[in-house]
Protein 1
Amino acid sequence: PTTQIPDEPGDLPPMWSTSKWGDVRRSRTADVSTGKRARVKSGPGGSGPSDILIQVAGKEDELKKKLAAYASFNQTERDLLQSAFESVSRERGGVEGLCTRAEFMEVFSRLGVRMSPAIVDAMFGKYGEDRTGRMPVDLFVTAVLSSGNRIIAMEERRVGAYKAGDKAGYAFAGRIKYWPCRKGVYAPSNWDPALTARSARAPKAGLSLEYVYGYGGLKNTANNLFYNKAEHAVYYTAAVGVVYDRHNHKQHFFHGHDDDIKCLAMHPDTCLVATGQVASTSGPPIVCVWDSRVHPKTGELRGLVAQLPFEGYPSIVALQFSPDGDRLVVITGDIDHTVHVFDWKTADEALGSIGGPSTVTTGEGGPDEPPTPGLITVGKGGKGDRFPHVYGASWNPFGKVDGGGDEEDAAIKNKWSEFVTYGAKHVKYWRLFHQDDGTPYYGKKGSPGLPENSRFSPVTSPCDVMSICWMPPRGNEIVPGGGSALVAGTRDGDVLLFVTDPTKGLFCTRKLKAHNPGPKIPELSGGGVTLNGVRCLALRDDGETLVSAGGDGAVMWWTTAQLTAAARSKSVPCEPHTTRVLNADDSNRPPAIRALDCHLYSSDVMVGTYRCDIWEIDDQDGPHVMLYGHSADVRALAVHPRHSHVVATGAESGRVYLWNCNGRVLKAKCNTHHPVVGLGFSPDGKHLAVGCKDGTLLILNYDNMLSGEFNQVVKRADKSRCEFHHCNEAIDEVKYSPDGKLLAAGAHDN
């Protein structure tokens, strides 16, 4: 009969060697078009594939038991089976080392195992036969007497999951290897291929995101909360960009990322937003530029405008648009914190063109890897003993002439010729220069991609700079080459005043006491704790007021004219003229502030806190919470049994929140002082069982939580608290019995 050589090694039988036994013979029902080995088909009134496989496995087990009974010290099971095949082959004049179906049945018969022709065909299909229709004896003897794990390894396998539309592959019943499972998976023994066709299609029913509770304020290193042109709040949580309509209490979402977003920047037009993420399992980190405006007809966000992938980098840690919006600074999370300066529209057009590059390239790979069009500068932001080392970037929005006040430099005034990057014990100064051929670059003169280091001394020693804001030019600063002034917030709560000079660069002139350091918070890496400091600085649209916020929960208003004068003269006094402090919570301490933005048309200020809440401060109502969130991983959720719109959530911060999903508001909250990992309501809804990470089990009173009473833990008749410490490990599951008399707690205790 004609034979075909398989296209893929996975199509060969286990242990089959084409160099030793030649091509694999296909059965009469083989698919000649694909060259695949035939699968046993199920038909009306006949045995399905699972039945044949079960019978084959049963006959193999029966053979092993017979051989074990006949074997002795001098003759093993393998010797017995090999001897039986050799004896039958000699008597029938067969080919040495090969056996026909008749010889195969005779061997099993002599060993006391009866075989039907259908089972013999299945055996030959499983272990393989050559072009003459004979099975290699050595292959069968080795395979059938091997251990279970070895047999599994020899089974036919395929790489990758079932594909939609590939109906020929649905009947495959061997081992399937694909990335979520290292050892492979198997179809159930009674698998119906029709189920594969159904599961390959997306279900008609689906889920759509309606509302996100909380804001990403735990791990941001720069400002990540802004007002857009429509006065909506723009921020992110996890991998979702959020546009919150604060007037109608409605949210719109950007779903262009496939992993956690790490940073956000607002375009000067206050419509476009840039967000950067960490690398995902399916691709590199990407920067998305998207429109935060809501379409008036569809009610949806206008969506993605541009996308820049960064192959080979672990994450994007900071972003910043230039004041004209044409250029974008991207800082990646590699060891050098590489700083990229883009003409982002040109880069997006090149990456999106047919035949263009698929990812951002810097040109360091040689002629075969030219730099991405639109990439102006690549440089090292710096590295240190802590990660991240660079926290953010800030452009000078007031324009400046680089290289001094020469006549030839006047043409590039207001070309946004400088920015700074800041972070752990540094502020680095990047200025615009041009090479001999007219190519622009950022860095210091004669050194593309190499910034100037700012000087802290003699005012102070180098310290962590958490935020930067440029001051509007005044007096001599307005003329070309007049320099600029900027304000920097430190981790200790101080404010540093810097000035720029065409020849001296960037240097610190004064230190002002501003905020208290605030409580210590966990570091982003290393497991230690650190101070929060002055995390936010923002300039009001009128240019007359600077607003600062820090780890002490205070927001301060400063006069920019006074700050600029203080930067030039040590004798000028400088203090904030207004201070507002956020309300303290159950720990009697205001939350540390991590982000801040000023409203475009009023005196309102919006801040994001370390507890993942968003607050707004206005002249009439003062500070008030606009949006609540958890400040740690949410590990537990329970739905009220009688009010399905009431949901309880618990986080490792120790807080339990009750939410009204109809109104999308927080109903009540409770601080258990234990990391919460499990929740469960009693059948009557009066009690809420709380399982904790340290093995503590609490029973909370639902009504007391709603009324805000101090005693929220249920008390027995003897006034003792319903608090149990029977477990040493985390209690992830808590469930009441239907009658509410018993409570089951599932813990990690061994």
Protein 2
Amino acid sequence: RDMAHADDAMTRVREAIDALGDAGASADAIADALTTMRRACLTSDDACDDVVKEYLTHSPDFADVLNIWDSYHANHAQKVCAPLLALCGTMMTRARETAATSGRASGDGWTERERLALDSLARAIMSRRMRQIYSHLASGVRVRVNAGLITLAGIAGRGKRCASELFRTFDFSLAVLPKIASPPRDSGAKDGTSQRRHRDGKDVLAGSTRRAFCEFVLAFFAVNDAALLRPVLAQRVLFGNVARFSAGDDPSMQIRMLQVIKEDIISAKSGVPARLRAALFGDVTLEQLATMAGREDVDDEASTSGRVARDAREVLCELFTNPAHGLCPERSGAAPKKCQSIVRLLQKLRPMDCEAHLTILLRACETHPALAMMYLPNAKYALEPRLSAHWLAATGLIGRVCVAAAADASASSAAARADGAALVVGESEGLAYVKAVIPPGLTKHTLAKGIAHASPMIRHAALCLLLNVTKAVGARVAYLESAIREGDTKRRGRDHRSWRLDDLLAYARLGASTMLPDVQSIMAAYTMSKGGKEKDAAAMVLMRCHALNAIAACVTIVPDALMDAKIDLNKLLPTNDPTSLPHGELAAVINVLCAAKGLRAEGQSPVATVVAATTGHDTGVNQGHILSVLRVALFASSASARDSAKSLAKHYLVTSGALDGRADEADVWIDVLASAASLTDARDGKDVIMACTE
């Protein structure tokens, strides 16, 4: 049956070819013949080869095509010339330049003849008939426009030589090109996407002008001509218009467009300059990619739409993390002007509703803290505590962005230079320095309300947010401390910048105290997290760890935070067997105690006055507490907890006066105990060492 159908099709093709050669044939007959031949070409590549071969036997070098073109262009441009151009483009597209492409044996003589004849037809159109092509494009008639674009796509797809010649010949200044590249009015939304688009059929001639335009542009990339890649990309009327409305295209067209981006534009092998890449991805193009990445079926990668969403997400992540593409800043510092397009898109994403948008946002901010710093001032999320999935997700997201923003050393340096060089540094400068890493709308009252909430879930999320915010503020304050130390060593006696930074640090600490909850409130949240159901034990431990670490961060930022707090931090550590605490909670307790004594993890004192020397909390340290700290330093399973406990034990021994201030002797004494603990076996040895420390 298939053979009989093919024979019938070729019979109709021969009759159509005879009609084209008939000098007395009417315009309608010629149009029908051209349509019949093109339908046969669209059946398959082999059928197209047979049509071309049969036509060349009757009309060498396609002489009839050119004669019909010249005879009917003036009076029957739509009836005759539109199907004629569509036929030419289809033949040139289907029958490619080599025998291997058409599936024939390379020894067939007619294959070389076919290729040369099609190349000759393409050159004849480019050399003498481009004005007629332009008239079709400017006609405003969809069928004529599509026919002209099909012909141009067929010429460009013939190979590198034809593509280069067409690029040199074509007039890219035609005012009608942006209109042709636009989607149909009935399916175009305000942002260029389609709310409910109808799918174009397989025939490009019957589809929209945008689809035909995309076929024309993508044909330049299909020939894989490295020398032509940059000039084609530099003509923004080409790929720029393809990407401008790409979110409303069919998924198959979107995949082809994204493949061009991945393989020909952002690939390291493409050699496209960073400035040209950045120019191609303007605000509109980035929005189109974000729309495609946010499709609901992103997880269904087996579907075409799922592949589109995945590829669009990967492209955006690559653009926003790799400085080689000219959009994101270099790792050595910030470039605000260059990052504006990324920040504007990040502010339009829907990270609470779309996992792909969340991935893009976090990857961009955590890879380049400068982007997080620029994104944060306009990150207006509803942070008032309430039991909803949106609020829980928002607190987790904004906390990570705060931590990422605080890692932007260039922004901290710029703020320190600007405020430190001012003649007068006051409360407003200190508060602004701290608020740079605090999201808008997040106040001291909001945080205090969240950590005191009756719902454990809300309290847990609020403690996570508080911990991230305190980490961010602490990083900014630590940078000022480092700048002061550097200023004291490098510029002592040469200017007054160091003491102005001292003022900025003092006002920054004051500003932090107005933005963060007091220690008493955080300790109350810690107390509320004790007990609970056995199945929630792990969550409660995690909550207590967050509360303790937040207290440590607050005390490190504002050393005077414990002045008015009516709490005894020493009671956090059990006196009998401190290692019975969960590992994470034990490490957090030691962290709080070190912070209260003004100790860093490495045992150094900060620039500010050590709390232990100025408050009354140090006087409450008794022998039992010191022994508990020693036992943590010897037997804790966490290496960080042991190191911090050693620093704390050394501080107690030195400040107690027992060693007459000899810090080296304290180190030797603690190291000897640690060595003995490591050489003693199991439970019996532990009991011996614990007895020795009594």
Protein 3
Amino acid sequence: ELKVTSERQRQLEKTLINAASDVWQAFGNWCVKGIGHAPEAVKEHYLVAVVGWMKMGTRSGLSSHFLATHPAITFALNSLSTPALLMPAADVIASALQLAQEEAVHGLGDLAFEHPLLTLLLPPVFNLREKVAQMDAEEEHDTVKRLIVLLCETSEAVAEVVAKASQEPNAASIGSSIVDCMVWVTQHKQTEFAREAMPFWYHLYCHLDRPMRDGGREEETREERERRLAFFTPLLLQLVSFLFRRVEYPEDMDDMDDEDRDTAMEFRKEAGEVIGDIVYLCSVEEVSKRADEVIDESLGKGESGWRMFEGVLFMLERISQLVLRAINEGSQPLRLLERCFEVLPTIVSPPEALGETAMIFVDCYAPYLYYNSGYLSYCMKAVIEGMGERSSAKHRSAAANALKRLSGKCGSIIASGGAGVSIEEVIGYVQSVLPTLNKKDEKAAMEAAGLLVACLSPEQIGGAGTSMANAILSPVDKTLSSVHCNEGKGEENSVKHICGGLDHFAAFLEGLGKAGGASVFHLFQSAYPILQRACGQLWAEEDVMEAVARVDRMALRNAPKEFMTAFSIVLSDLYKCYSLRPFSCHLYFVHNAVGEYGKNAESHSIFEGALKAIVPATTSILSDENSFTGHPELCEDFFQMLSRFIRFCPGVFLGSGTLKESFTAGIRGLKLFHRDASCAILFFFESLFRASYTGDEVAEEAVEREGKEDGSFGQSVNGAVLKAQIEPIVLELGPPLVQRLVEGVAGDLPSSRVGDLVAVLTALFRLYPEPMQAWFRGALSVIPPTVAGTPEEQEELCSQMFSGSMRLAERGLYDLSHRARV
């Protein structure tokens, strides 16, 4: 494989730029001398070559005005009628328009319908619409698609010009015809073709909403925006009316293959985004009127009308945040939502597709139902039925999520009996349908149960919570009593049953957190003997340990004040399990606990004991490079935990005496390819070094970053004190650390990791500039010369690194990375 250095690339580019004038003259001469009579293969190569030279853009002195008079463009337009040349000819036109757009973006020229290139290209391109309409989309699929793509690319390139089209009659006429053409494309019965118009609508929205690219006075900008919207609003609302009809649930959806089904669903989502943009530009009220008309039309279709109604619900779900925001701000789009909630109960035995969309609709508009609780009774009934085993998996999932949202937003109404069903009935039903739900939906349903219990009166919460906890944990306790264990392992079915019960309990606690920490901690405390038994019997089962840790985290998160009283016991039990069989879930719990209690001096002795137990147990597993590859999750959570200690309580980390052990393990893992684990190691080193900055180093970096703060690293202790504590270890282990970091930059690690490597190296340079000179030169000396560069290039890199400028150092390291990868 030929490796081209960046210098050779620059020289080649310079040569091509110098030759551009002659090449374009040659292109013109070939047209004049009769390329029209050449074989089609030659014409195709000619058009491809023209596209290639266009890609050099304005760097080669090329301009859109020059292209407007060049024979190659006329030849490309004439070639659109030749099937064999259609693709390259369309590419030429699209590239020419892209160049004109690039000029406008960079202030090299203004783009308007009077521009010579647009005058030349737009009429013949948009005349293709009639040709496409006459073609058979099935038999001539590729040709139709490329022509439609050309129409859409052309429209997208001139979207800004279209947005300004209301300024004078001729431009307004052209702009309207382009918008009309895009509406026509969006209406195409082939969904994959209709999707091609979506980028145009987005770009038109951007230019209508932000009319002045280079800013301007606020008053001028507002006036220009209002002028454009006054012209385009009727056109956009026509598009809304069409889109609400176009996204009706496809009649042949069940017969589609996976690719066609995905295309149809993606189009529906993209159409929702377009309608959302129009809502933002116009108003919820105007869009609501169009949706209301579609609902009327759907009701007039009888039984088949559900497809169109489902499309309206789907669109309203996509724009729910905008609708709810408008309601909160005092607008009145309420009639539309009232109609939807009135129509839903009238549909007898709704199809699964409608049922699923209705559940998502209820989920999105749960905040609305809190203030319009008259519809809540139907919604709760529909949700409960939707979670039943007769529903499809997607329907059940949507219903479980809707129940969770309703419980969170409308729980107080349900608790007071205002939803036609009691909390006890809902919870009983949830427990009965849990076996039919997948794991994710089980969690949503149990969270809903917790949220509902949290809405009871303080006198009722204790009894209801205890009753629910007993119902969840009694089967777990019974299974633990009968499970046969061998060296911390149990039978598969028993383990699965135990994990399911503990996961349900964790989800219930998460929902119950709304009631306050006391309720959560009371249940956690009552359940803790069962958790201890699970740890004591099944310490080698990772799924069980993760489930126990999940319960611990839910109690910690929702009852931090109360949990502190049991924290030392929980952490002590965690040590025991971790010493027997380390799992990353144990480390993740400590990571969360440090974030909660790290700045609390009362917890420091507990954390110090934890580090003294955890670090040796972890580094004994991560003893060589291969062990890092075999345990990437353990590595990731271990170093993330250490970084959290550095951020919240670095004194605890240093006082535990585990820095050198952790530092050495980090060096061993620096060649790990696993992205998240590798990033965790690099973040650990960067956190350690940057937390050690003194006031001078912080000030220097602030100047380099032009005063921009980096919130990732807070200084919890005096940087000078921390620097003094880590210095002996850094001076001892600095050479191998820098060696690994430089090798990573020079190609041992993926390019995506270079930014993190550079951050660690520049932080080290700021802390230890003099030792780093020797360490860096030593590391560079073992890099292959083809990567390290010539002696002159190496010396230039060293001068950049030792200059004291972070920007120069980063530039030098990125150049080294580039040489290794080109």
Protein 4
Amino acid sequence: TSMKRLVDGSSNKSGGEGTMSLLKPRQNNHESDTTSPLTEQELYAGADAMEIVRDAHGYFAKRVEWRSAKETMADLERVHFIGVDAMGLLVTGHLTGAGAAVRRKVDAPPAPDTNKKSPAQRRTSTRVTAAERSEETASKTRDRLQEALQNRDLMKSVGEYEEYLPLSTRVVRELRAIFECLGGMYSDGTSLLLSASSVPSYIPPPEPSLPPGGKVLRTEKVGSGHYTQSTMQLLKTGFPQLDSYGEARRSVAYASVDGYCRQLRTARKKLMPPEGSAGSAIALAQIVDSAARDAVRCIEHTMVVVSGEKSVYRCVVSPTSSNHHHDESGPQYQRALAGCYSFVVAAAVDRLLDLIEYTFLREAGCSINLGSVGDGGAGPGNSEMDIRAAGSAAAAGLRIVDGVRMLGPSLSRLCDLASIGSGESTIASALCISLHRSTVKNCSKTLENLARSIQLDPLDGTKHVPTDARVAKVSSDVVHAIRVISPFASAYKSVSKRRTLPWDEGMGDDAGEIDIFVRFLIKQLIVSLQGKAQNYKNEENPDNQVKTHLFMMNNMYYLLDSLGPDGYEHINDESDENYRIKAPWFQSKMNKIFEGEKAKYLASWEVLNNHLTKVDERELNYKDKKDILSLESGRLIKSRFSGFIEDFERVYLVHRTFTVIDPKLRETLQDDIRNVFMARYKAFFDRYASIKFSKKNMENYLKYPPNKLD
């Protein structure tokens, strides 16, 4: 009778209210337990009936010579299997209906001064609101996560959710009763056995299992919500109660992570500007940065979900795992426990891994083929990503690596159960390794895309080569890119230690710091600027070659001012992007190019000095009145003044079309130009202006007195 009540209550023959009431999610832990069609006493009676069936089967197994023994044992096995299925349905109903093992934290108002907090208050100061997380800078995120990792209770310091047990006391007792009832039985790898004599010599490992080599590879489409097919297969541990537990909690854990990812993505879509709208490029860069922040938030949320599932496992399964009575089948049950827990948490990590790869491919442009750094040609689609977009993508990739680098080890530990101690690698732990490998690999691609985008920047066109020789757009874009990646020095080191890069072939301890990458970007930028400067030399007007020198001067000075240790460009000292290149190579290289180009630029003014030569006194002959030079002598001075005026006006007309935006550089160049010819011109003017070398047109030759030119 107890067995019939157990079967009827767990799987209603009509498939109606009995089953649906079990699968209906509870709103909270305090919901009335009357939704279950079984009373607690009926469940315990059913478990006792299962024990009686096993004892009866053992009784007849010792008396196989009886004529009715085989038929009776077959009937007992059939009844036992029905009871096992019924208990499996109860496990599925309870664990599915319980819902996620996480709940949203209550956002507390931030304290006005962090420095005045007590140690206990500082341990909880990492609880920031969702709005604050969406605008966190790299340093604030790193400080928050570092502080969280130092706390004993890590899960209270990360994420916007917290773990909690979604099971009522009665449900926990019922589930434990089921696991205690079925925990001491043998298994042939597919189902439970009533007799040890039926155990085969070889028992297959739990499924899904790791592929040969222990490495999990992507089998599903990026963005599909899954990384590998292994997490979508049915769980087959050989113990139906574990299979039911794993299938139920797998779907809940996956839905919890998937729902959070979709929530963040929906919020991010609302910030997407209309295509082609003004400022859309800046907005798109903010979207990429926001996507990277959301990816880190998803890592935190996945950790909380896994921790919550670990709490459910320890509450329901762990107290009964030591009640496995048969030592010879103990290792098999331990492997089944490891496979069951791994199956649950692997679904959450699988969803996270797909999200991060989708962020890299869709948001960070890893799907765009820009070719290899140093190649002469460009891959297809290279025009789809400019330098500013590539810089934002590289910063986004480094931000994700930073999150994985800091939180990945903790997530990996949460995915393993030290209490099981099977010593075998699981799908969940393999996915954690794949998470780190995939993140590092894709981040290295974003760094290569950034370097390649500088190399591919067009060398002609007014958009890229300004007609007035001002600072090129490529320079400001590269400065922006260097600033946005500079806060992630530790993340870059994590990438360079594990991947060989075109600019740094060292790995491990031989890997370089982010300064090596910055130096390579500056080198690529200089090559690009020099190529652009050649376009001025190709112009028909020979005076336009002067633009080459001023163009390089403008850009070198801008780089020194923006990135040099003594630069004057104002940036908030507390900003993540207040990056300065303090290595001596930078100033030395920039100054060398700047001074060389300035010398060539000033040489264009030297032509004026050709006319400021002194006239030999012996060639100055006066007329009878002694105050007017003779015609031949006057022409000597006239030719000098007229030559100077002609060349000065020509040079002035050429240089007035140039632009030097920086006021300090403009004043410096004006002083340097004065030093080229003004002293000689003043002496020449003062000497010959008092001599009347022209009878009618003196004012035409003296129309540029030194104070006017100055």
